[in-house]
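Thread: quick sanity check before group meeting

JM: Hey all, I'm pulling together slides for Thursday and realized we never actually wrote out the predicted structure for the chain we discussed last week. Dropping the sequence here so it's in one place. If anyone has concerns about the input, flag it before I start.
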Amino acid sequence: MPVDARVALVTCAAFPDLWEDDHPVRDALRARGVAVDVVRWDDPDADWSTYDLTVIRSPWDYVPRRDEFVAWARGVPRLANPADIIAWNTDKRYLSELAAGGVPVIPTTFVAPGETWPAPAEGEWVVKPTVSAGSQDTARYVLPAQLPQAEAHIARLTGGGRTAMIQPYLPAVDTAGETAVLCLPDTTGELTFSHAIRKGPMLRRTGEHKIDPGSEDITPREPSPAELSVAAKALAAVPGGAKRLLYARVDMIPGPDGTPLMVEFELAEPSLFLSYAPGSGDRLADAVLTRL
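JM (edit): ok, ran it. Output follows.
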């Protein structure tokens, strides 16, 4: 173990002592003799050069300041996950790259400022911005009845200079739920399956439903071989290789034929659900020690 190792766990003003689900890794690092500071990403007095490693955890207020957040990440000398990954993964247009690379991704249409959505005649659809966290500005609409509301939502996003994304609502989320597969480094540094959870449905059919951390219906889950295969394909497509990552989360829902489709690939600031998997905080702490 490095002598006098110092680690910063990055948060935001809303969670001055971290989101509680990250306490297991904080406590495990301190138990291993590492000096751990919890620091806001936008703290003007923070000296990031003094840390042996800076680990992004809960800086969830970055969304309206995403450019500032990416610039901050590029200025941190030893950051996990790396700054180029943060830049790539904080805009969900990465989904189109993964789909082109053969990862089974939920069909997604992107509407940039100045563009319009070629709306289908019917169905249930989810509208959200490509830059968001915690389901901010996300809503579910039934067409054709709620087409005006869906189009108004898209227009509001694009009118504000944001890119909107539209995905079909997968009914399996109401029954099977969403599976999040969490991957952490093994003793060789390769990202491997650590644990998984099930998330229940979060979007009502009318209006926008903003999710607060902790409001989700979460339980531990054993992922299927098909879900683990999707996670492996996603990791294989990470720009620069997945071995650079300290953590990864692959969210997926069964598609119309029952096969899992990835809805998000979380590499920037995901909840890791450490409190739902005994030992996972220790595994992440050991991975941090390896990086040190």
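AS: nice. The chain has seven helices and 13 strands. Confidence is low (pLDDT under 50) at residues 205-214.
JM: adding both to the slides.
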